[in-house]
Design brief:
Layout: H1 6-35, H2 45-55, E1 62-65, E2 73-75, E3 80-83, H3 85-88, H4 93-110, H5 114-141, H6 146-186, H7 195-232
Parallel strand pairs: 1-3
Antiparallel strand pairs: 2-3
Helix pairs in contact: 1-7, 2-4, 4-6, 4-7, 5-6, 6-7
Length: about 230
């Protein structure tokens, strides 16, 4: 039934895994390259984020520094945009792109962007399904009964929420980058000639979300293949 077990898993997961490794290398390369390129206006990531937020009427959203490398994120619960030191304090092209992207999420939140609301609604299910789903699936898979099959389907359904979450994340991240690009190209905080670097940094980052979605979907397909094989047996 397992058709080589580990080998079968690699058959499903290896393409997505390789895509993920390539995407991570690409985003790291782009960020490091454009972190060494100072913007002509010289605004830091924190200053650019603040200006983008204020231009959208989001004066109440705080911009704070957080620890870690590329740990930048927007917290919709506390209405806080947190930037890593390499973004918060830097006046590089890379910092400008990342800061504006995260500010884009705050703008999405304020405008009740539908896909962001849907993703946020899925968070509790994903938090449970990502770890409990595989456990229930494997227990059901090894039970030689119709109850086991039902249990395996329940586990698969729970884990599938992670794939749905990853797929919904794609348009959310792409839209945030689009908002960032639009602001940076029209606000005067960057020169038009500097937008090439912005596109390379943000487009490379988008690939990591594509890879994450591919990995989640490939795992769901692997589980489905195992379950369908059990049914044929």
């Amino acid at each position: 039934m397992f058709l080589g077990g580990y080998g079968l898993y690699l058959l499903f997961s290896l393409p997505a895994l390789l895509l993920g490794l390539w995407a991570q290398a690409k985003v790291k390369s782009a960020f490091e390259k454009f972190s060494r390129v100072r913007s002509n206006v010289g605004l830091t990531g924190a200053e650019i984020a603040r200006r983008m937020l204020d231009s959208n009427g989001l004066n109440a959203v705080r911009v704070e520094e957080t620890q870690g490398f590329l740990s930048d994120h927007y917290d919709p619960r506390s209405k806080t945009l947190r930037l890593s030191p390499n973004v918060y304090r830097s006046n590089s092209i890379a910092a400008a792109g990342v800061a504006a992207h995260e500010a884009g999420h705050a703008v999405q939140d304020a405008s009740a962007y539908g896909m962001l609301k849907l993703r946020s609604a899925l968070v509790p299910t994903v938090q449970i399904g990502s770890w409990l789903g595989p456990i229930i699936f494997m227990i059901g898979l090894f039970m030689a009964s119709s109850t086991g099959t039902t249990l395996a389907w329940v586990g698969l359904g729970l884990f599938s929420a992670t794939a749905v979450f990853a797929l919904i994340t794609l348009p959310v991240e792409i839209d945030a980058s689009a908002r960032a690009k639009a602001y940076l190209s029209t606000s005067g905080v960057l020169y038009n000639s500097e937008m090439t670097g912005i596109y390379k940094v943000l487009d490379a980052a988008a690939l990591t979300y594509v890879a994450a979605a591919a990995q989640a979907v490939s795992t769901v397909l692997y589980y489905l293949f195992l379950l369908m094989g059990r049914s044929r047996d």
